[in-house]
Amino acid sequence: MASVLEVRGGKPLTGEIFVRGAKNLVPKAMVAALLSQETSTLRGVPQIRDVEVVSELLQMHGVEVDYQQEEGELTITPGSLTLPDPIQVDALAGSSRIPILFCGPLLHRLGEAFVPDLGGCHIGDRPVDFHLKVLEDFGAVRNSTPYGMHLTAPKGLKGKPVRLPFPSVGATEQTLLTAVMAKGFTELSNAAMEPEIMDLIAVLQKMGAIISVDMDRTIRIEGVDELHAYRHTALPDRIEAGSWASAALATHGDIFIRGAAQKDMTTFLNYFRKIGGAFDVQDNGIRFWHPGGELQAAVLETDVHPGLMTDWQQPLVVALTQASGLSIVHETVYENRFGFTDALRGMGANIQVYRECLGGLRCRFGRQNFYHSAIIQGPTKLKAADIVVPDLRGGFSHLIAALAAEGTSHVAGIDIINRGYEHFMQKLSKLGADVTMQP
Ligand SMILES: CC(=O)N[C@H]1[C@@H](OP(=O)(O)OP(=O)(O)OC[C@H]2O[C@@H](n3ccc(=O)[nH]c3=O)[C@H](O)[C@@H]2O)O[C@H](CO)[C@@H](O)[C@@H]1O
Ligand SMILES: C=C(OP(=O)(O)O)C(=O)O
C-alpha cells in the first residue's frame, strides 16, 4: 500500500541540506561503464530509486556493482557480460526510462539486447521513436517480444549523420552511447546540450571517446575500437536544488543547499530573482531564502537547455501561487505536465490551464488538444488537503504546497519522490518540517 505522509504545514523550512549527484546523469554514467571491461568508479552517487533500478539491470547482465552509500561511491565491473532471461528484465518494466540506453553498449559488447517497457513520469506520451531511428540507422534490428523489445546488430553498428526532430535529452544520450564505439564518424545535429549531457560526454572522454561539441547543437563523434574505465564525480543535481529552493520561497523559509552549483542553474536563478526570491552563491553551495515582502508574478516558459528546465516548472508553480498578480507558465517540453495543478486548486490556488501557447514561443503542442499553458493568480492562502502524488516533480510540488498550507494535509504515494530526491524525509526533518509517516 502507498505510504501516506501527514504534513502539519505553515512553518518556514530553514536549515542546511546537501545535494549529491544528478539523477539525470548518474544512471547514464552507470550505463556508459558497460562500454569497457574494466572497473569504473562513480562518486557523488545518491541513494535514489533510479540508481537501484539501473544497478539491478546491470547485475542481471553479470556486472558487479558495489555501492558505498555513505561515501556515495559506486564501482562497476562489467568484465564478462551475459544476456539475462527476458522475463527477468521484464520485471523492471515501468520502473525507469534508463533501460533504453542500454541498447548501444549491449549491442557493442554482446551483439543483442532486451529492453523492458519504459517507465518514468506520466507527463506526456514520451515515445522513443528518435531513439529507435538512431539505433536502426546505425544497423540495429528490432523485434517485439512478449517481454519488451529485442535488438540485434547482425552487421555491427556504423556511425551516421543524425538530425533529431527535437533536441531530446534521451535520444542525444542514445546517440552518444552508441556512436562512441560505432564504426566511423557520427555528426549529430539538433542535439540536447543539458549540463548532464556535457557531464556524460566528460565521462565518455575519460573512457577514451573522441567527441566534440559546437554551440549550434552539433556533436561530432569519431568511433573508437576500445574504451577503458573511468573515475568521475557526478555533477550535482540542479533539479533537486531548484526544488528545495522553491520550497524555501513557498514556505517563507531559508535553506542553504550544500553542493548546489550556480553554473548549471543560471536560468533558474534568474527566474528565482525575478519572482522576488533571494540567493547567495557561496563556494560550497547556494543559500536560498524569502526576503520578506511580496513575491512578484512572472512569465515562465520551459525549454531545452539553456532555457528554463521543465523539471523546475512544477515546484516553481507552487511558489508562484504565493506571488502577487498574474503569472503565465508555458510548458513547451511535455504536453501534459499540468495535471498536478488539480490538487493545488483543491488547496485554494487560483490556476487555470489553457490549450493555447501563452508564451513567446509557438511550441509543438500549440495546435493540439493539450493543456500546456497555465495562468496563476496570486497570492492565495493555501489550505491543507488530502492529496495523491501523481509523479516525481508533481509529487514534490504537492509536498511543498502541503508544507506551505495552514493545517494538516495527508500526502499519499509519497514513495515516488524517492525516485529523484535522496533522503527527502531526513532532509524535511533537518529543515524543521512537522511531518510524520503514517503506518
Ligand atoms: C532520466 C532523464 O534524464 N529524464 C529527463 C530527460 O527525459 P527524456 O530524455 O525522456 O526527455 P526528452 O528530452 O527525450 O524528451 C523531450 C521531448 O521529446 C519528445 N521525444 C523524445 C524522444 C523521442 O524519441 N521522441 C519524442 O517525441 C518527448 O515526448 C518530449 O516531449 O529529459 C527531460 C527534458 O529535459 C527531463 O524532463 C527528464 O527529467
Ligand atoms: C521527468 C523526470 O524524470 P524521468 O525522465 O526519469 O521520468 C523528472 O526527473 O522530472
From TrEMBL:
Chief location of this protein within or outside the cell: cytoplasm
Entry keywords, A to Z: Cell cycle, Cell division, Cell shape, Cell wall biogenesis/degradation, Cytoplasm, Peptidoglycan synthesis, Pyruvate, Transferase
Single GO term (MF): UDP-N-acetylglucosamine 1-carboxyvinyltransferase activity
Keyword S-adenosyl-L-methionine: no
Residue positions binding phosphoenolpyruvate: 23-24
UniProt record similarity statement: Belongs to the EPSP synthase family. MurA subfamily.
Protein name (Swiss-Prot/TrEMBL): UDP-N-acetylglucosamine 1-carboxyvinyltransferase
